From TrEMBL:
<protein>
    <recommendedName>
        <fullName>peptide chain release factor N(5)-glutamine methyltransferase</fullName>
        <ecNumber>2.1.1.297</ecNumber>
    </recommendedName>
</protein>
<dbReference type="InterPro" id="IPR019874">
    <property type="entry name" value="RF_methyltr_PrmC"/>
</dbReference>
<dbReference type="InterPro" id="IPR007848">
    <property type="entry name" value="Small_mtfrase_dom"/>
</dbReference>
<keyword id="KW-0949">S-adenosyl-L-methionine</keyword>
<dbReference type="Pfam" id="PF17827">
    <property type="entry name" value="PrmC_N"/>
</dbReference>
<dbReference type="InterPro" id="IPR004556">
    <property type="entry name" value="HemK-like"/>
</dbReference>
<keyword id="KW-0489">Methyltransferase</keyword>
<dbReference type="GO" id="GO:0102559">
    <property type="term" value="F:peptide chain release factor N(5)-glutamine methyltransferase activity"/>
</dbReference>
<feature type="domain" description="Methyltransferase small">
    <location>
        <begin position="102"/>
        <end position="191"/>
    </location>
</feature>
<feature type="domain" description="Release factor glutamine methyltransferase N-terminal">
    <location>
        <begin position="8"/>
        <end position="78"/>
    </location>
</feature>
<dbReference type="InterPro" id="IPR040758">
    <property type="entry name" value="PrmC_N"/>
</dbReference>
<dbReference type="Pfam" id="PF05175">
    <property type="entry name" value="MTS"/>
</dbReference>
<dbReference type="GO" id="GO:0032259">
    <property type="term" value="P:methylation"/>
</dbReference>
<dbReference type="InterPro" id="IPR050320">
    <property type="entry name" value="N5-glutamine_MTase"/>
</dbReference>
<dbReference type="InterPro" id="IPR029063">
    <property type="entry name" value="SAM-dependent_MTases_sf"/>
</dbReference>
<dbReference type="InterPro" id="IPR002052">
    <property type="entry name" value="DNA_methylase_N6_adenine_CS"/>
</dbReference>
<keyword id="KW-0808">Transferase</keyword>
């Protein structure tokens, strides 16, 4: 096998990824080669004529084969999210950029003493909130034991201790009252599953789809959270699909919540900030 130079590896990766239908092929090619070389972006520019070692070329071939098979890039390289380095795999939903904005919105409010992350998945939100407020008591729940195992691995990887991990449905085993409850629940309509991108099909369906309109679990969450919030000031934050966020906002107002709807970075309404209307 003829050794590849860094420039040749970049060109090969760009062509292969584009052929596989990956829109961001140039950026992902750079990410793959940079990972193999353990290089910075600036360093990559200077190493074009350099030849990959045998070990580097074998790693490059494995990564490129997996990515062209549409394994999520985050599974292969990990991800930087909310200031943390996180491991990603099929045990939990890959943390999305939209949820980083939910983290930002939550941290613009006064520091809470007790926090609950419902459906923690990879642990991203719980760990980032614990990092932001080290003195807070953070509890994170998930119905999936596999997801919780990944969250705990990410706690070790991130060097963050203190989060209490609980296996259970919604608030099961979580003892309130909480000043802040946050959740990125499954919120897609079940019909979306048939047209999901190949990468999304690697995510656990349990973390994505929730009934005909995507709100089955969110409705249960609203009903069960009301009595677990601290009074006064307890707040529930939800991330939802822009297609159904206003529908749940109307239902929440009708069932005794004060509701504010917030957009994501693209201007689409996506987040609900809720407090009991009697506060």
């Amino acid at each position: 096998m003829q050794p590849l130079t860094v420039q040749q590896a970049l060109e090969q990766a760009r062509a292969a990824l584009a052929s596989a239908g990956i829109v961001s092929a140039p950026a992902e090619a750079r990410a793959l080669v940079q990972h193999v070389l353990q290089s910075t972006p600036a360093g990559l520019l200077l190493r074009g004529p350099e030849t990959l070692t045998t070990e580097q070329q074998q790693q490059f071939d494995r990564l490129l084969e997996a990515r062209t098979a549409r394994w999520p890039l985050q599974y292969l390289l990990g991800t930087e999210w909310g200031g943390l380095t996180l491991r990603c795999d099929a045990r939990a939903l890959v943390p999305r950029p939209e949820t980083e904005w939910l983290l930002h919105l939550c941290t613009q409010r006064p520091a809470p003493a007790r926090i609950l992350d419902i459906g923690t998945g990879s642990g991203a939100l719980a760990l980032a909130l614990q990092a932001r407020w080290p003195s807070a008591q953070v509890t994170a729940t998930d119905l999936s034991a596999e997801a919780l195992s990944l969250a705990q691995e990410n706690a070790v990887l991130s060097g963050i201790s203190g989060v209490e991990w609980r296996l259970g449905d919604l608030l099961a085993g979580a003892v309130g009252p909480f000043d802040l409850v946050v959740s990125n629940p499954p919120y897609l309509p079940e019909a979306d599953q048939a047209a999901a991108e190949p990468e999304v099909q690697h995510d656990p369906a349990l973390a994505l789809y929730s009934g005909p309109d995507g709100l089955t679990l969110a409705r249960r969450l609203l009903a069960s959270t009301l009595t677990h919030l601290a009074r006064p000031g307890g707040t529930l934050w939800l991330e939802l699909d822009p297609r159904n966020v206003l529908k749940l906002a109307a239902e929440a107002r009708a069932s005794g919540w004060q509701v504010a709807v917030h957009p994501d970075l693209t201007g689409r309404l996506r987040f609900l900030e809720l407090q009991p209307a009697t506060l």
